[in-house]
Amino acid sequence: MNLIASSRRTATTVAAMLLTLALLAGTWVVATAQRASALDPFTGYLMVHFTGESASGEQIYLAHSTDGLNWTDLNNGGPVVVSTVGTRGVRDPAIVRSPQGDKYWIIATDLRIASGTSWSDAANRGSTSLVVWESTNLVDWSEPRLVNVAGSISGAGNAWAPEAIYDPATGDYVVYWATNAARNGVTKHRIYYSRTKDFQTFSAAQLYIERPGTQGIIDTQIVESPTSVGGFRYYRASADGHITIEASNSILGTWTTIGNLSHMGISNGTGGGNVVEGPMWMPFNNGTSWALWLDQFATGRGYMPIRSSNLGSTQNFQTVSSYNLGGTKKRHGSILQITAAEQSRIVARWGSTAVSRIQSYNFQDRYVRHANYDVRIDPNVSPAQDGQWRIVPGLAGTGTVSFQSVNLPDHYLRHESFDFVLARYDGTSTFRADASFRAVAGLASSSWTSYQSYNFPDRYIRHYAYQLRLDTITDATGRADATFRAVG
Fold first, then answer.
1. What range(s) does the Alpha-L-arabinofuranosidase B arabinose-binding domain occupy (predicted)?
2. Would you state the pLDDT for residue 309?
3. Which of 127, 182, 227, 421 has a CA 20 to 30 Å removed from the CA of 22?
4. What is the dihedral sign for C-alpha 171, 163, 71, 80?
């Protein structure tokens, strides 16, 4: 009887163990498949960044590269998405892809120094929220939303330089950022973290990185090393007086200091030399080396790359002399390796567009131009760029076009009360609708083009007394006034 009972218990235990192993194996397979699905062959790189403290520089800009060293500005050098929440400006953006490769997020600091905010106010009495955008395809982005990640930190003065990394151990994302607050009698920047599955609901903030004494830390970024070259799974670079490189086998585990870049004459201020910030990791698509981009903010020269084939020692880092960052200054951001499909979508939507002039049908010596942000048709436009446009995919979506200024690439042609102005893109759905048009066969000649309003489809772009208006068209004069063609 006891032998039978013992056998039954043994069988039950074995069955339970087998079931547990099967479940664990299934979980491992699912997790591995999810992580691998985002690792289709990478063919390019996408950089998300801001450009500086100009009127529109603290917004989201994109650049594309096929080799990781030579970059082309997307959207003709204009911002791609614009913050309409919080301070109405963003810095230090990070871009995140889901393990399945079916969702993307941009998170950024809610800060606009260009509005007149002082650095002291921003650090001590600033926004404790991050700005978040979401996309399923890298080209169509949601409206921005605020997430108050640092609101629960006692005396929090800000929330700066956010980053996020997927944690396979828990199936969620670790979001981390810098907050300036008093702790143990010392007020300084420390790195805090929170967890989220959807970038909408976040766990309470917890302390992540604190340096000894009064040394603060603002910028830090983690990269995963899939081949563990150097002996660790994760590496992070932090701006804490030096550019300190650390390593760990788990995101929230114990970190080992590898070294810093003082031997290269590079620091975050404590060591002098070339003073940099905003370390930005980029694994090369060949899988054998990494770039660490550093923002040379002290000299205003923007990013520079250094390269390593083994992150296990800072002695492996070497400077890179041949690179090109394109036409805009690249400030603190992040880089995403992208697949051929992702690259195709991005270039189709945001790639460079030819420069055109918009010629009037019935006054063929006149072209659409902006002057003091008003829009009209003139002959002999001077300076010439005032009459040059890029006809880009419409801000309001498929089937429309928008007119982007060549010399003011963050400005678009839009109607206001049926009058036309050149206005800076403010990211709102109203702006997108006002600045989008359907190109249709010319009302006066089918070989030319007329532009129908997206949000007032009974109205068309036309000139009246040489000024551009949005009108209903009822006669032959109106049809001629509303007919144009794009010429090189």
1. 357-485
2. 92
3. 227
4. positive
